[in-house]
Amino acid sequence: MQVSENHQRYWRKNLRVTALLMVIWFLVTYGVGYFARELSFAFFGWPFSFWVGAQGALVVYVVITWFYARYMNKLDQEHGVAEE
Prior knowledge:
Strand content: under 5%
Radius of gyration: 18 Å
Largest sheet: 2 strands, antiparallel
Number of strands: 2
Distance between the termini: 26 Å
Strand order of the largest sheet: 1-2
Mean pLDDT: 86
Structural class: mainly alpha
Number of helices: 2
């Protein structure tokens, strides 16, 4: 099966943004948890490591999901594969 150049560009952009968002997810999930002891300053009255683990990570996950959905909708429209 021959894949068009348009489809290849679409897939490359999709993989690039997915990889970037996965790196951000990994850093928030494991990076902050790994260095939590060094993050011992107060943030809104709580230790920063606790805040990131309890609240901040969830906010980042929601932002990642929102950004991915928005980006993919624009990418779908740009490449003519959007669902109407």
